[in-house]
């Protein structure tokens, strides 16, 4: 961009900066949420809760399905980025 357009857009710099920060936070949250290691740890914890009688079989099945869906997405996303494609 030219100098004039940069000067005209200068009042919007805080908004652009905030948007960048929000985007970074969202990407990091998604990385953590879909981390295969974290999902597997949650699956193990879920099984412990079932064995301890803290949740019912129905709750276990529902939560396990959600975690397995996250793990599938993580695996698919990882495979796509390993192939050189982007999300």
Which spans of ≥5 residues are poorly predicted at pLDDT below 50? none
The overall strand count is: 0
Q: Determine Rg (CA atoms, Å).
A: 21 Å
Through-space gap between termini: 28 Å
Q: Which bin fits the share of residues in helices?
A: over 70%
Proportion of residues in β-strands:
under 5%
Question: Which terms summarize this structure?
Answer:
4 helices; 87 residues; mainly alpha
Short recap of the structure:
The chain has 87 residues and is mostly helical. Helix content is 80%, strand content 0%. It is elongated, with a radius of gyration of 21 Å.
Topology:
Blueprint: H1 3-9, H2 13-33, H3 36-51, H4 57-82
How would you describe this protein?
With 87 residues, the chain is mainly alpha-helical. The chain has a domain of 44 residues. The protein is built from 4 helices and no strands. Helix 3 runs antiparallel to helix 4. The model has no long low-confidence stretch (mean pLDDT 87).
């Amino acid at each position: 961009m030219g100098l004039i357009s940069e000067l005209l857009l200068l009042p919007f710099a805080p908004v652009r900066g905030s948007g960048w920060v929000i985007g970074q936070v969202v990407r990091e949250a998604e990385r953590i949420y879909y981390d295969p290691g974290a999902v597997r740890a949650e699956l193990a914890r879920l099984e412990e809760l079932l064995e301890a009688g803290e949740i019912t079989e129905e709750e276990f099945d529902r939560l396990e399905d959600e975690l397995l869906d996250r793990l599938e997405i993580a695996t698919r996303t990882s495979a796509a980025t390993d192939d050189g494609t982007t999300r």
